[in-house]
User: Fold this.
Amino acid sequence: MVTIYDLAKRTGFSSTTVSKALNNYSDVSEKTKKKILDAATEMGYLPNAHAQSLSTKKSWTIGVMFSEDNEVGMKHPFFSSLIESFRKFVEKEGYDLIFASRNLRNRDTSYLEHFLYRAVDGIVVICSDPSDPQVQDMINSHIPIVVIDMSDQNCSVVYSDNIEGGKLAVNYLHSLGHTKIAHISGDPSIDAGAQRIKGFTKAMDELNLPIHQGYLVNGGMFSIEEGKAAMESLLMLEPIPTAVFVSGDHMAIGAMEAIKEKGLRIPEDMSVIGYDDIEMSAYVTPKLTTIRQDTDVIGARAGNLLIKQIIQKKKLFKTEVIPVQLMIRESCGVVKKEKK
Assistant:
C-alpha cells in the first residue's frame, strides 16, 4: 500500500508537506500541490479512512435515530427537510450519517450499543418519544448528543417555539372575528403535540374565549386520515366551530377533505389553519394558511451544537428554541355574521 512517505520519497518533499498538500492546506503552493497530487495519482495512493480515524481518534460519522410511535420517520416532509438541512451542515464539516435501523430491536441490540459498535462521534435523535428508554440511554451516555423536537431533556435540544405557534394561530383566527375555534391536536404524549395544545389553550384563555366541549380533539400521529376523522367528529358538534387550528399540515389536509365532503366551503363556512408549512400546503385548494417551522435553521443549529460537543470532547446542555412564522394564504376568512 502506498503511503505518504512513499510520496515524499518520490517527490522530494517532506512528509509534512505531502500531508498538507493532500489535505488542501493553503500554505502549500499550487505548483507543489500539483506535483504531489500527480505523483499520488500515478502511484495509486488512497487515503485510508481507518488510518485517519486511528490518528484522529474520530470516525467522522454521526448516528441518526428516529424515535416515534407512528414509524413515519423521513416519509413526513417536515422530517425529511429537517434531516436534509442537518446532513448538509455536517457533511460540510466532513461527517457522514449512519441511520439506525428499526430491525435492531428484533436483534436484541439497543441503539446505543449499535452506535458504540459503529464508533460514531455523536448522535442526533429526531421526532422523539420522551418515554422511549432507548432515547434516555443515549442521553445518559458519554456520547455527544443533540435531540430535535423535544424539550426539557438532560442534553442539548433544538425545537420550534410550538407554544408561540399555537398562540399565533388562535390570535390570527380571532383577528378575523372567530370565537368558536376548535383544535385538532397532535398526540399530547409527544412534545410538539403537548406544546401546541398549551399555545392554543393559553391564547383562548388570554382572549377570554371558551373552549366548547369537544372542541379539543386528539388527532393522533399527524396523518391525513387522522385529521379527516378528527374533523368529522367536530362537524357533528353543536355549536359547530367556525374555525379549526390543526397541529400539522397533513392533518389539516385531511380536515379540509372532511369539510368539503360535508358540503361546506373553505374559508366561507369554515376556516382552517395548519402547522409546519410543508411544500404541499401551498398547492392544495384552497392554499393552506399555516404556521411555518424553519427546518433549515433547526437542522443547521442542531448540526452546529453537535459538532461543537464533538470538537470540545464534552457534552453541552444547551436549549435552542427556533421562532415560527405565520404564512397567510387562502384557507382562513372573516367569520360570517350569525343570523339573528
Remarks:
- Residues 295-312 form the longest helix (18 residues).
